[in-house]
Amino acid sequence: MLTPEQLTDLPVFPLPNMVMFPGSILPLHIFEPRYRSMVAWCLEHKSPLGVAMIQHGSEGAQLADPALVPICGVAQIQRHTELPDGRFNLILRATDRVNLEEELPQRDGFRRFRASELPDLQADPQILARHLSTIQALGDGLATTIPSLGYILNELMAKGMPPGQVADQIIDFTTLEPFDKQQVLEERDVLKRLAAVEELMAQLLATAGHDHSHGGHQH
Question: What is the C-alpha separation between 34 and 123, in angstroms, rounded?
Fold first, then answer.
């Protein structure tokens, strides 16, 4: 949960092709002077920071401040190491979704925004439970062909993670294109996110079954 003060003055780190879901971990190496300043400010003020994807077409090196996709993840600095030359190694953990509503004047060269939280919409617990049960069954079916997915799913269930974060973490684990992941990030309806996960896992299971059935043929 972010405080009103944090939402009123949120530092934002732009990255190309990066969608950060609540619950995700991101290691970063910070070397640019303005982002060193941003990290130092965040550490001093115990502030989170937004991790926003650069809009397609705005990635050019000539753009010092490229356009950003407004809905992004917000992360806390979980661990940090400051190197002797002023660079930082960080471990970020995302906690929330936000909408970047208004860009504010820069501070020491780094970008900051006024933002609003985008909490998950309330959903019927029984329907959520049915979705999770279906996802668990699909995960069991995929465990032999994609063991890492089965492991991730079991870990999420064992931790008692909220259904919305279960959906987010499975989508984050997949090789979906960043644009497709961004669409999931922007969806506040947990039931729709879980349905998207079910559809994706069912496709993976069908593909895995098809590959397995043809595995013995020589061409």
Answer: 42
Looking at the structure of the chain, the number of domains it has is 2
105, 161: one domain: no
Close Cβ partners of 88 (under 8 Å, ≥ 6 residues apart): 28, 29, 30, 36, 39, 80, 81, 82
In the numeric block, which tokens belong to residue 100? 């970047």
pLDDT over 80 (residue 26): yes
> Confidence band (pLDDT; 50, 70, 90) for 65?
confident
The CA–CA distances, whole Å, from 198 to 47, 152, 165, 173 equal: 35, 15, 14, 14
- Tell me, yes or no, whether 11 lies in a domain: yes
3-state class of 8 per DSSP?
Answer: helix
The answer to pTM > 0.70 is yes
Q: Do 111 and 130 reside in the same domain of the chain?
A: no
- Domain that residue 35 falls in: 4-117
Residue in the block written with tokens 């909408």: 99
